[in-house]
Design goal:
- The chain is mainly alpha-helical and 66 residues long.
- The chain has one domain.
- The protein contains three helices and no strands.
- Helix 1 packs across helix 2.
- The relative contact order is 0.24.
- The model has no long low-confidence stretch (mean pLDDT 91).
Length: 66
Amino acid sequence: MPLADVEDAVRSLVRQARIVAEGAGALSAAAIWSGRVTSGNVVGVVSGGNIDPGVLAGILQGTRLP
C-alpha cells in the first residue's frame, strides 16, 4: 500500500468522520478508498489513535512523510 494512500485515508478519516487513526489503523480504509478492494462484502476496521501530533499535523497539511 503506497504511503500516499495511507496518508489520504488518515486525512479523510479526520476531516470527514472526525476519527483520528494512526497509519496502520487506517490501512483498511486506504485499501477500500484506493480501489484495491473491488468486489464482495467488505468490512474495514479503523483503529489506533497513537499517532504523533506532529506527524498528524503534517498529514493534515498535505506534507508527505519521507
